[in-house]
Amino acid sequence: MLAGTCLTLAALHLLVWCRQRTAWGSLLFSLSAAATAAMAGCELWMMRAGTTAEFGLALRWLHAPAWVLVLALVGFVRVHLRAGRPWLAWMVCGVRTLSLVLDFLFTPNLNYREITGLERVPFLGESVSVAVGPANPWMLVGQASLVLWVLFVVDATVVVWRRGEQRQAILVGFSIVFFVALGSAQAILALWGIVHAPVTASLFYMGIIASMGYDLSDDVLQAARLAKDLRASEERFRLAVEALPNATVMVDSRGAIVLVNAQAEAVFGYTRAELVGQSIERLVPERHRVLHPGNRQAYTAEPITRAMGVGRELCGRRKDGSEVPVEIGLNPIRLSDELFVLASIVDITERKRAEREGLRQRSELAHLSRVTMLGELSGSMAHELNQPLTAILSNAQAAQRFLAREPVDLDEVRDILADIVEQDNRAGEIIRRLRMLLRKGEVQQQPLALNELVREVLALIQSDLVNQGVTARTELAPALPSVNGDRVQLQQVLLNLVMNACDAMNGSGPAERQLVVRTELADGELVRVSVSDRGTGIAAQSLERVFEPFFTTKPQGLGLGLSVCRSIITAHGGKLWAMNNQERGATFCFHLPVHRGGRA
Amino acid sequence: MSDDFNSDASPTVFVVDDDAAVLKGLGRLLRAARFNVLTFGSPQEFLRRHDARAPGCLVLDLAMPGLGGLELQELLAAKGSALPIVFLSGCGDIPTSVQAMKRGAVDFLTKPVKDAELLEAVRLALEKDRSAREARVEMDGVRARLATLTPREREVLEHVVSGQLNKQIAGDLGTVEQTIEVHRARVMEKMKVQSLAELVRVFESARAAGL
Questions:
Q1: How do residues A377-417 score in pLDDT, each as one tens digit?
Q2: Which candidate, B140, B76, B84, B86, places its Cα nearest to that of B113?
Q3: Count of the separate structural domains present in chain B
Q4: Rg (CA), chain B
Q5: Portion 459-488 of A in contact with B at CB < 8 A
C-alpha cells in the first residue's frame, strides 16, 4: 500500500516534470518517491525471504534504491530548498556510492559477512524473516554516509531557517532530518542485530516523501493560484483596454493584432473577430502599406512611448475602404520576453472639421474687417482710380484735337495711344488689387517678399496719406528673406497698421505727421516689420488691450482691425505687438518666420 | 529760365500735378488747344522756376504730398502774385472748393476733367490775367502822369475832381481864377485827358488803387 502511494506520487510529479522540464524539484521528488517504493519492495522481499541466500540478495538490492534516494534527496535539498554545502553534498554522494559499490563486492552484501540463518519474528501481527549472522564491519561506510547525509540536511535546514523560510525549514528540512535519523537508526540497530526486527527504513522515509510531497503540492497549488491570478489580471487588462476612451489595438512583435477594443471596432468598422490574428497593415491605407512594416520594425528596435508619425497626417483605413484621420500613441509592453505594442488611436475627424471651421470663421472675420477697412479707404481708392482716368481722358481728348489739325502729327498720336494703354493698365491694376482685397477666398500660402508688400500697400493708400497730410518713409532692409503667407491677409495687416498710424496723427501738427515703415531681419530667423507714427502714443495699460476685439478709440471704429491682425499674424506663426516710442508716438511690430528655401 | 518770363511774352498755362501721367495728359490737351504750356511735377518745382512777371494762369492739383494746392495758393497770394488759379481735385470736396474760390480761384474742377470745361476755365483765367495786367499797365501810366504834376497842380486837381468851380478853388487857395484856369489846363494836358469826366474817372481809379 505504501509503495503504491509512493508510486502514485512519483508518477504524478514525473508528469509535472514532463510538462515543465525546468521543474527539477518535481523530478527529484519523483525519483525519491520511486526509490522509497522500491525500498519498501525490497524490505518486503526480505521479510518474506525463505532462505538465507534470498534474504542476502534482497538486502543487497535494497542498497540500490537507497543510493537513488540519498542522491535524489541531496539534489532535492539543493534544488528545492536552495541550500546545503556543495562539498558536503559531494561527500554524501561519494560515500554512499562507495557503499553501493562495496555492497556488490561483498557476499552476500554490505551488511553481513555471512547470513547463518533466518529467524522468524512477529511483526505487526505477521511472522517475518530476520537474518542472523555476523555483521560486516564495512557496513560502517554506508552508515557514515547516512550520518553525513543527516549533517548535510541539518546544515541546509539551518540556512533555510535563517533565511526566514521557517515553514519550509520545518516541513522539509526538519522532517528529512527527523525521518532519516529515525529510519537510519532503526536500520542500523536491526542490521547490527541489536534489536530483532525487520529493516523498515522505507516506512520512515515515507514520512519524508509525505512532507516533501506536501511542500511540492503547495507549489502546485500556488501555481494554480498564480494561473488564476494571471487569468484575472488578463481579464482586468482586457477590461481596462475595453474601457479606454480611445480605440486601442494591441499588436505583437510580428505585427499581428492580439487585442482590439470596442472603440477600435467602431472606428474601423471591423468586428474584433475579423481583426484578431490579422496583420495590423489591414488598418493602414494602401498608399502607406509598403512603408509601414519598415516603420514598425524600426519602432520595435527602439520601443519607447511616443506619438506615431509626428508632423505627419496619419490616416486609418476603415473596412469599407474609406480613410479616417487619426492620431496614434504607441506604448511598448514587454510580457515575459515578447514585445507587444499597444496603439491608442484617436479619431480626429471632428477636430479636423472644427479646425477647418475655425479657419473659415477666421478668414470670414478677416474679410469682414478688410471690407470695413476698404470702406474707410473708398474715397482714397476713388482718387487713386481717378488719376489714370484723368490721364486717359486728357490724352484721348488731346488726340482728338491733334487729329483735327492738318497735318496730323502721327508721332504725337502714337505716343498718346501708348500712354492711354499704360494708364488703362494702371487703372486695371488698381481694380485688380482692390478686388483681391475684397475677395473672400481660401487662404493661400506662398513665399512673399515683405518689402514688395510694403511698397504695394503704401501705393494703395498713397492718396489717403496725401489727403491726411502724412508723409510715409520706408527703411527696407535689402536682400530680405521671404516669408510664407497669404498675400491678401498680410497686406490687410500692413494696411491696417498704416491706417491706424495715420489716424493716431490726426491731431498732430503738419510737421509731425510722419510715419516710418521698417523691415529688418531679426536673429536670422524672423523678418520684422514695424510701423511707427509720431502721434499721441498709447496709454501704457492699453498696449495689450488694443488687440482685444471691440476695443476702439475711434468713434466710427468697429474695434476689430487689430484683433483680426493679431489672429492673422498668429496663424502665420508670427507675433504682433505694440509699444510706445521713446520720443513720441507708437510703433506696431510684427515678425514672421523666414520661409525656408529662398530669398526675396 | 526766368528770362523766358517777361511781361511781353505770350501767356502761358502753368500746370502743377504730382502725378506724372496726369501732368503729361493735361499738358498735351492744353497744347492741342494751342496754349503755351509749362508743366511742373510739384509745387516746390513751380516756386523754384516760376517768374511772377510771366503772364498766364495756373492749373493746380489740390492734393499733393508735402505742399498742397491750397497752401501754394496761399503762398503765391502772400508773395503778391495775382496769377489766376484753376483747381483740379480728385474728389468734389465742397468745403475745400469754397475755400479755394473765396481766395480767388477761377474755377474748381473735378477729375477726370472734360476738355471743354478745362479749356473754358483756362481761357477765363487767362482773360482775367490779361485784364488784370492791362489794368495794372493803365494804372502804371496814371501813376507816371500823376508824378509829373507840381504840388500846386496836384492841389488844383484834387479840388477840381471834388467838383469845385475855378472861382471857389481860387478862393480856397488864395489866388485868382485866371491862375487856376492855367493850372487846370496844364493838369488836363499832363494827365492826357480830354474832359473833366475822364479826369474824374482816372483819378478815382488811381485813388482806388491807393495812389
A1: 777 777 788 889 999 999 999 999 999 988 888 999 999 99
A2: B86
A3: 2
A4: 23
A5: 463, 465-467, 469, 471
> Would you say the ipTM is above 0.90?
no
* One domain for residues B97 and B167: no
Distance CA(A378)–CA(A112), nearest Å, equals 133
> Of the residues B136, B161, B181, which one is the last residue of a structural domain?
B136
Return the residue of B nearest to A394 by Cα: B25
In a domain, B142, yes or no: no
CATH number at residue B68: 3.40.50.2300
Chain A / chain B CB contacts < 8 angstroms? 86
Is B5 within a domain? no
Cross-chain Cβ contact A391/B21 below 8 Å = yes
Distance, in angstroms, between B36 CA and closest chain A CA?
14
Our CA dihedral for A434, A440, A444, A450, rounded to 10 degrees, sits at 30
Q: Are residues B204 and B163 in the same domain?
A: yes
Residue B57 placed within a domain: yes
Which residue stretches of chain A have pLDDT < 70?
1-3, 5-6, 9-10, 12-13, 16-18, 20-22, 311, 555-558, 597-600
Inter-chain residue contact A463 with B32, CB threshold 8 Å: no
Residues B169, B130 share a domain? no
* Sequence-ordered list of residues with C-beta below 8 angstroms from that of B139, at least 6 positions apart, any chain: B205, B206, B209, B211
**Best mutation site among A380, A381, A387 for testing chain B: the one with the most B CBs within 10 Å?**
A387
Three-class DSSP category at A401: helix
CATH of the domain at B197: 1.10.10.10
Residues B101 and B173 in one domain: no
* A397–B114 C-beta distance less than 8 A: yes
**Residues spanned by the domain of B58:** 12-136
Q: Inspect the interface and report whether the beta carbons of B111 and A389 lie closer than 8 Å.
A: yes
B123 with B182, same domain: the answer is: no
**To which H or E segment does residue B192 belong?**
none
What pairs with residue A387 in β-bridges?
Answer: none
Residues B29 and B126 in one domain: yes
Question: Is B69 in the same domain as B119?
Answer: yes
- Going by C-alpha positions, the residue among B112, B113, B42, B110 that lies closest to residue B71 is B42
Cβ distance A168 to A215 under 8 Å? Answer: yes
Is B1 inside any structural domain?
A: no
Q: A39-65: per-residue pLDDT in tens?
A: 888 888 888 888 888 888 888 888 899
* Cell numbers describing residue A308: 506615431
B130 and B51 in one domain? yes
Mind listing the pLDDT tens digit of every residue in chain B (211 residues)? 334 444 456 899 999 998 899 999 999 999 999 999 999 999 999 988 888 788 999 999 988 877 788 888 888 888 888 889 999 987 767 777 788 888 888 888 988 889 999 999 999 999 999 988 888 888 888 888 888 888 888 888 888 888 888 888 888 888 888 888 888 888 888 888 888 888 888 888 887 776 6
A402 touches B: beta carbon within 8 Å: yes
Using CA coordinates, name the residue in chain B closest to A413. B28
